[in-house]
Amino acid sequence: MIPAKNVVTAEWVWLKCQFGCDGFNRRLSCPPFTPTPERMRRMVGEYRRALIYCYHRPLDLKTRRRMGRLLVAIERAAFLDGCHKAFGLGAGPCRFCAKCDTGRLCRFPELMRPSMESCGIDVYATCRNSGIELHVVRSRTERPKYVSLVLLD
Q: How far is Cα 137 from Cα 145, in angstroms, rounded to an integer?
C-alpha cells in the first residue's frame, strides 16, 4: 500500500506512448483513447491510497491475459470490500484481443484497463517515491519488472 500522493503524472509520458509504442491509436487501452495526464492527475488527487505491485515474468500472451485478469480481480475484491472507487491500471497495452477495433466499443470492457503509462503516470518516479527499485532494462537477457496499480478509497 502506498499513499496516492506517491503517484506521479507527467505530460512527457504520453509522448513516449505516441512516439515509441505500437499501441498508440491502435488500442482502446492506449492514447489517445485513455485519460490525459492532466485528467489522471486530477483523478489520482481524489484518492488517498493505492496498491502497487510488481512482478517478474516473461510476458507471453497467455501470461499477459492472466495478469490482466488478476488486476481486475484485485480491483473487484477491493470494491466488494468497501473501496467503491477502486480502479486498476495495468502494465502495457491490453492484449485481450489479437487486434483491437478502435472504431467500436471494447469487446471486453469488464477486463480491459489502461496501462499506467497510457494515462501519463511516470512509473519510474512512482516506484521511486514508494521505495520500489525499478531500472531500465538494457538488454533482452535482463528480466523486466512489470508494475500495476490499483487506486483505492
A: 9
Q: Whole-model pTM?
A: 0.92
Residue 7 maps to a domain: yes
All residues at 6 or more sequence positions from 81 whose CB lies less than 8 Å from its CB, including other chains = none
Each residue of 118-145: pLDDT tens digit?
999 999 999 999 999 999 989 988 888 9
- Find the domain containing 115 and state its range: 2-128+146-152
Angle at 91 between CA 2 and CA 147, to 5 degrees: 35
pLDDT tens for residues 74-110?
A: 999 999 999 999 999 999 889 899 899 999 999 999 9
Query: From its phi and psi, is residue 146 left (phi > 0), alpha (psi between -120 and 50) or beta?
Result: beta
